[in-house]
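All the exercises in this workshop are built on plain-text protein records. An example says more than a description, so a record of this kind follows:
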Amino acid sequence: MNPNDFSAAKSGRLLNAPQGYLAFVPNSLPPPINIDMELALALSKADAALSELSGLGGQLPNPHLLISPYIRREAVLSSRIEGTKASLSDLLIDEIEDDNSKRSVNADIQEIRNYTYALEHGVTLLPELPLSLRLTREIHAKLMTGVRGDKATPGEFRRTQNWIGPAGSTPMTAAFVPPPVVEMHECLDEWEKFLHVHDVIPDLIQCAMMHIQFETIHPFLDGNGRVGRLLVTFFLLERKRLSQPLLYLSAFIDAHKNDYYDLLQRVRTHGDWIPWIRFFLQGVTETATAAGTQAKELHRLREQYRAQLRDKPNALVLIDNLFINPYMTIGRAAKILGKTHPTAKATITAMEEGKILREMTGRQWGRFYVCQPVLDALDKPFA
């Protein structure tokens, strides 16, 4: 790190490590900031969009039908930021493989699966365990066990120095070096106290600060980015700003990746908190609006299909499962229905004739079917 880049003592301090490199130790939160009219307007828009999404989540007749695919889409997008290549379709097809022995051992798929487990685990824990260092470690353990980063002590804060930089860099040459281990634990203790501050800072501004502080502390050897993005959703759920886990910023971050990293670094080097907070609020506004539109479209499709198949009870059962995973096989249909394969095949044929399902392999055996409108609604690119 170049010490001349760090010009704002209000963000933190540089520390000379005994090994000869510089490390950055952030100040405790909150920083001194002034909320001007531009920031107040951005906050107002983000609050309104988030409230509308939360209200929609509370009104959906079967919210679990939307939450499951949302979680998987977020798992794909958040993992993609870290370099995985698997798509949402890859994950969904892998999940419905009738023979578990044929399920993918692809490392990218496993990382995405782990992200799904971590997200679902955190949502389950929140009613009993507050957002805390303990919850953060639990999430990290679910995320990193059995994948490429599992040698990075899943569920444990690092015991050695890490750094951020291109392959082959060292703490001496890295673009950013987080606090050493002793200072890291001090920073984490202060960060946890900040999580429990209520009714002092607007929730979304506090969330923006919480997120960047975690990324700056970088307390794990691997997985910090994914855990940091999960913490945004958990924070908003704990504060009752979301009724269901329907908001994820990974799509926005992925679409503006360079801005995201530049703004994080500007907070550290120059104390430029306002541009970062505006960026975060813009992400909440755009993501909440897109998620609301997506939820309404999925709900519309469900009602359309249910009306279309109202006199076919077996097909009605499959409809709801298509919103959990829009891919279908005869084996999966038989298992869902608790019926024979011929009954499952007849049900799928009726849905093909209604143009709800489309066969996608062209084979006479091992056929896969997809509900394309549902998949399109789930996997719509972020504008």
Notes: The chain has two domains: 61-294, 312-378. Residues 61-294 form a domain with the Fic-like fold fold (CATH 1.10.3290.10).
